[in-house]
Write the structure tokens for this entry.
Amino acid sequence: MFGLMDGFLKNDPISLQKDILYHVEYTVARSRFSFDDFEAYQALAHSVRDRLIERSHDTQLFFKRKDPKRVYFLSLEFLMGRSLSNSVINLGIRDQYAEALSQLGFEFEVLAEQEGDAALGNGGLARLSACQMDSMATLDYPAWGYGLRYQYGLFRQVILDGIQHEQPDFWLNFGNPWETERVHVTYPVKFYGTVEEEILNGEKCNVWNPGELVEAVAYDNPIPGYGTRNTITLRLWAGKPSDQRDMEAFNTGDYINALVSRQKAENISSVLYPDDRSYQGKELRLKQQYFFVSASIQDIIRRFKDAHSNFDEFPDKVALQLNDTHPSLAIVEVMRVLVDEEHLDWHKAWDIVCKLFSFTIHAVIAEGLEKIPVDLLGSLLPRHLQIIYDINFNFVEELKKRIGLDYDRLSRMSIVEEAAVKTIRMANLSVVCAHTVNGVSTVHSELLKTKLFKDFYELWPEKFQCMTNGVTQRRWIVVSNPSLCALLSKWLGTEAWIRNVDLLTGLREYADDADLQQEWMMVKKVNKMRLAEYIEAMSGVKVSLDAMFDVQTKRIHEYKRQLLNILGIIHRYDCIKNMDKSQQSKVVPRVCIIGGKAAPGYEVAKKIIKLCHAVAEKINNDSDVGDLLKLVFIPDYNVSLAEVVIPGADLSQHLSTAGHEASGTGSMKFLMNGCLLLATEDGSTVEIVEEIGAENLFLFGAKIHEVPELREKGPAHDVPLQCARVLRLIRDGHFGFQDYFQSLCDSVEGEDFYLLSSDFGSYLEAQAAADKAFADPKKWTKMSILSTAGSGRFSSDRTIRDYAEKSWGIEPCRFPSEFDG
Ligand code: CRA
């Protein structure tokens, strides 16, 4: 029995080698005597996949036997990146694989580079989901992730003459070794049609006769935990034509059209919407949302019914996590199933539904909240619209009893917005139904209570919670920064920090230790070399390792103020140009690195990318400047590039106008990697300051409470001289494209909504402080060590434990295995 508990597959290098060769021959179908790096990667991935499958079977059987309460994490986006390195590290067999491969004449790292990124998401929210899956698996929680299997992930960014072009991401073209298609796990999903009232067993009930039927098929992706045998599942749905409906079309003889319309079903899950902030009310997007929600809920209810027959127990066995409003139709769908299909009484069903959902909102401003036009919803999901009206009716009646006839407030809180275009407010629906409403940082949670959901907070203060975001140290240190990982384990005397990241505080006592400092600097150098090589290969620009590597990588948005960064770079350039040689010799050399994608329709963001390239062109070719300043734009920033960029950064910039970044998670990854932050007091930075102290980072800019007043002052406020001079250089065509950039300058000298001009002086001061600190390596290194040491609170392990305990009410369910000694 014991042997079986450990599985069939052996993990010594010889067994691994045999497995790899087996997969070369029989899975990849190449000769085991002749295969290239890509084929070796495929075989390797399949051998890892076997081990993941075995563990996920064990985990699922164990969950089934124990029947714990499970959490279902519903998210329309998961930014998983690559899986190979992460998997073998979490399985604890990376070294064995490396040895097996080297005997075959291959290098593990080289093969790992063959893997493409799974980019089924936009930015922060999507990568957060991926980090949280890793933590749920590692902490042994009985969890499932549910999402959509887009055929095209986030677009590839190609830069031509400084302009962003979008190209499709054919990520499945070379196959995806990690997923398993479950041809038997399929569910019909209904759309359109009409709702009829019928009498069933003497009771009135609503029957939805759909106009279109699409089949959802499951693709399972294993998510292994670290230091545990538990391996959970991310189940992604893909659209398939439904046989039931199509047979009729075939029988009527319209063979060609019937086949063509079959193809339409696949469109539902084909593309990811590439905008991470605005909601456009598009029919396909709504279809995607319902498609994924409906399939997931059917799957969850099927699993529940396998072991239970009474829906009273449903909330004891199921927690549903809404990752933003995107999956919030799940609320309505569960209501529909309980009332229309399980024939529960409305009020009983509503009681149950209200115990299921935990809702996390990631938006900061009201404009970022989803509203679905009633006409659209009514045509695509007629029964759901009725249910929403009924939920709203009951809610408003209840509300009147609590707050009286305050019509302004009633209309603000209503789920239905009666404006020129009548819409459904998905955020209000979620707040009304969820038992907890979570913000993603303390600052953001306060904002929810005092601004976005003030009316609701006054009604139900107990619902509102803060679940500060976090990132997984497995991906962001162990996988991406092996040298730092080794150093941390050496100085802490244990690898236990990989599961218990709070142990990193143990570094604090050595922050002044000369030996640690020396090793710490070496690690940074190794990572800077890797980044410098990448930069040179990608852009031809040679950068000096002695320079400060100053990075701002994230989606391009006006509120994230990449423009402020570029204006600062122009200022620096201008200063250097106006210095004599002796002054220049005191300048701290910088390599400024900017990267990130702009949403395809976001013209201002695209202009900022163009400006960055124009400025880079000028600076990098100016022999007066040489190594004192370089600017590079990294195209197509994604998870695997982040793994190279973040460890190699000395300084990272997080410049959002205060009050605009709900949390920000990039900063947490940089922090873990001992990179110093230059940041505004916004989002999670406020908590980072609490952990590491304001003296260990460079803060600047208006604070949240000052922003409204500064904006009031309006367009007339004084543009500081330094800022005006920089803008003049752009306007005068120093960087070319004079006309094209005028509007960017106007935005700063005009309304200046994002406060670039008013924060400019303070930004330059923070930059000067960073230069000064960098010139003192001991001081800098100490600050760097203290950054890593204080990063424990920003592990997604902490986030997930918070959710499990304060919101989901679930407990670990750990498969007993070799990890338990
Ligand atoms: N764009 C926020 O803007 C936050 C992440 C994850 C965002 C970030 O500040 O760190 O979520 N919001 O919580 C979002 O996606 C739909 O709203 C983001 O990634």
Remarks:
- The domain at 474-803 is CATH 3.40.50.2000 (Rossmann fold).
- The chain is about 50% helix and 15% strand.
- The chain has a mean pLDDT of 96.
- Residues 279 and 370 are 6 Å apart (CA to CA).
